[in-house]
């Protein structure tokens, strides 16, 4: 009986530990939407447009209307019909002036993978006119000297 209880406690603790670790990364927000793994970009609707379904014969069927200001994740791009952004579920948005397409920054992609963003050091005593952060020194140029 003790073995069964110990086993159950072990299973519950591992499950809780896994869920806490998964939540530690947190959501990576990009505008109004959450950045997801596999996402290559996003489209922002600049003026009301149509959401299309791409059929097996490559024809398009209207799904619904999209309103100005809405954002959608893009998972793929195909060149048919002068360019279509795949927003999931077999649905597409036509590439035209009513759509603004953007790709995520390298910093957002690093956060999504759970990496820490690059650290940029600001000098403690900046020189007059220095307004931008200074890149950290490259570690390749450092020489290690040991003192015995």
Main attributes?
3-stranded antiparallel sheet; 2 helices
Secondary structure: elements and pairs:
Layout: H1 2-25, E1 29-30, E2 33-34, E3 41-45, E4 49-54, E5 60-66, E6 71-74, E7 76-78, E8 84-88, E9 91-94, E10 99-102, H2 106-113
Antiparallel strand pairs: 1-2, 3-6, 3-10, 4-5, 4-9, 7-8, 8-9
What is this entry, summarized?
The protein has helices spanning 2-25, 106-113; strands spanning 29-30, 33-34, 41-45, 49-54, 60-66, 71-74, 76-78, 84-88, 91-94, 99-102. The protein is an alpha+beta fold and 148 residues long.
Walk me through what this model shows.
With 148 residues, the protein is of the alpha+beta class. 22% of the residues lie in helices and 28% in strands. The chain contains 2 helices and 10 strands. A 5-stranded antiparallel β-sheet has the order 5-4-9-8-7, with no helix packed on it. The longest helix has 24 residues, at 2-25. The radius of gyration is 24 Å and the shape is flat. It starts with a helix and ends in a 35-residue tail after the last helix. The model is unreliable at 19-24 (pLDDT under 50).
Give the helix/strand class.
Answer: alpha+beta
Task: Give the strand order of the largest sheet, numbering strands 1, 2, ... along the chain.
Answer: 5-4-9-8-7
What is the ordering of alpha helices and beta strands?
HEEEEEEEEEEH
Helical stretch tally: 2
Name the shape in a single word.
flat
What is the CA-atom radius of gyration, in angstroms?
A: 24 Å
How far the N terminus sits from the C terminus, by CA atoms, comes to 60 Å
Strand fraction? 25-35%
Poorly predicted runs are 19-24
Tell me the number of strands.
Answer: 10
Mean pLDDT: 79
Question: Helical residue percent?
Answer: 10-25%
Biggest sheet character = 5 strands, antiparallel
């Amino acid at each position: 009986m003790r073995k069964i209880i110990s086993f159950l406690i072990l299973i519950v603790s591992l499950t809780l530990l896994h869920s806490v670790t998964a939540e530690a990364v947190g959501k990576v927000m990009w505008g109004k939407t959450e950045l997801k793994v596999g996402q290559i970009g996003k489209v922002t609707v600049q003026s009301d447009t149509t959401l299309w379904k791409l059929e097996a014969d490559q024809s398009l069927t209207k799904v619904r209307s999209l309103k100005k200001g809405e954002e959608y994740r893009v998972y793929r791009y195909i060149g048919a019909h002068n360019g279509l952004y795949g927003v999931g579920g077999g649905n597409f948005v036509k590439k035209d002036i009513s759509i603004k397409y953007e790709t995520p920054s390298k910093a957002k992609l690093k956060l999504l993978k759970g990496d820490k963003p690059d650290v940029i050091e600001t000098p403690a005593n900046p020189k007059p006119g220095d307004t931008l952060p200074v890149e950290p020194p490259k570690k390749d140029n450092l020489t290690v000297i040991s003192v015995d």
